Amino acid sequence: MQDLVSRQLVKYLEGRGVRHIFGLCGHTNIALLTELGKSSISFVNSRHEQVAAHAADGYARLTKRASVVLSHLGPGLTNAATGVATAALDSVPMVVIAGDVPSHFYGKHPHQEVNMHADASQYEIYRPFVKRAWRVDRPDLFPEIIDKAFHLAESGRPGPVLVSVPMDIFSAKIDVALFDRLKGNAKTFERPSIDDQVAEKIIAMLVEARKPLLYVGGGILLADAAKELADFVDHLNIPVAHSLMGKGALPDDHPLTLGMTGFWGTQYINDSCRTADCILALGTRFCEADCSSWEEEYTFAIPPTKLIHIDIDPSEIGRNYPVELGVIADLKQALTVLNRVARRLHPKGRRNEPLVREIAAYRNEFKKSNAAAEVSNQFPMRPERILADVRAVLPRDAIITTAVGWNKNGVGQQFPIYEPGSVLTPGGYATMGFGAPAAIGAKIACPDRVVVSLVGDGGFGQNPALLATAFEEDTAVVWIIMNNFAFGTIAGLQKAHFGTTTGTVFEKNGKPYSPDYAAIARAYGLEGVRIEAADQFKPALEKALRSGRPYVLDVIMENAPVPTTGHWNIMDIYSPDKKITHVST
């Protein structure tokens, strides 16, 4: 029996359990959109492909399944590229289905094709950051390619893939048996683990160490291994430091959570890592900002510290630090074995009460350092006051999204996260426009949970048209715009090192300028309030959460740098032979 490729594709996606597709129309994909209109799958319409990709990213981070983005060719594909690259660098599974030029027009430069150096090669634009990019050359090859795409996106180290489909193939007919045969293929694969011998070696190294430490990255959350991590920590009483992407893998109020390392880390946390004699690293890439530019006097001194590194991606093991023991495994599987072996070798577990007391004392001291700012009534508001009021109002399992700037760095350093996987942040690509649209995908994935997007005015201003999608989808997200009239972090760096803020602050005729984002929200059909005094913010947030509607709070904030004793060697590039940081304003 013959049927349209577009119709069979929709049936395939339904069979995989796909419930939402994020995207934007174009003349190359409307055949598929037409079939989606007859489907149980909901098409989440956006006004810009970057919004669609970021929303799909937020959705996938919470569902732990590959999200689907539908794009047009040329400008549609390049608009989406930033969002897809963000997902790639944070190991988020995603399948991008993009319309392409008609196959019978290859070489003729049809409408909107990108072909400056080769014909019919738009899919190659994505090669540097997707796990694989396919161009479908014949209708009969399409079923096998789309099935491979989902498997590759979700297996090993997850990430996006691209399937570029010439528009005539969507409208071609195909033997339905080619799709039917895929039903016998497994939808998920078993993941690699470790054996007892390797587990025994790891546990022996940790137990024999004078100052063992666990260093946790986002891989724990991708593997859904937070419970296994907590069990391991509780049994052996080993402290846990984390990367930005690992925040929340162990709750911030757990007695053995140290906090985030690197440039935005504190002296105590960085010193704890630097002086550890054995570190078990779990699902981390040891990124530059988390590792103080890999300079051994600040965060990690490996060697002499002995490093055990477990990761699903072999290319990450030994990339930035030499390993004593490298292990390729799924973290949930590996920690399951480690927990079982640890209980066999040390049935009573281990306790380290002096360390627990030391960590508690550090936390109290750090909290005191921010106490005055957290209750300050000054206006524009102190950023610490904004974060403190937000945390006081939100439930423990609320989902937070951030972009870059104070909202990312301050949240990583100061904002407690209690539920694993409840903070979504653009770690690898540090994409300014991520947080606001990602919140839409997060709310669609988890409609019964509170979703709040903490974003700067620079980040929110990247794509305010996301509000149209929020209105149409009734996604009850609360966007809190930490509005400092600037690309604040960059402004702080430029002011500290060069004595100017050219191109980094928002001004008109020498005076600070910002659109009224609350009024913009109301124009889109949402609720919007501009905060005009510090004591207005918390009640306004409570009202926004009660409303059950999409809501924008435009909060005017002081452009104050995130305090840190950490190190990033860009400071040495700006000001060689000087001790100047972004705080030296």
Which SSEs are present, and which pair or pack?
Elements: E1 2-4, H1 5-15, E2 20-23, H2 30-36, E3 42-45, H3 49-63, E4 67-71, H4 75-89, E5 94-100, E6 133-135, H5 142-154, E7 160-166, H6 167-170, E8 173-175, H7 177-180, H8 196-208, E9 212-216, H9 219-222, H10 226-236, E10 240-242, E11 257-260, H11 267-274, E12 278-282, E13 306-311, E14 325-328, H12 331-345, H13 353-374, H14 383-393, E15 399-402, H15 406-414, E16 423-424, H16 435-445, E17 451-456, H17 457-460, H18 466-473, E18 478-483, H19 488-498, E19 507-508, E20 511-512, H20 517-523, E21 527-531, H21 534-547, E22 551-556, H22 570-574
Parallel strand pairs: 2-3, 2-4, 4-5, 5-7, 6-7, 9-10, 9-12, 10-11, 12-13, 13-14, 15-16, 15-17, 17-18, 18-22, 21-22
Antiparallel strand pairs: 1-8, 19-20
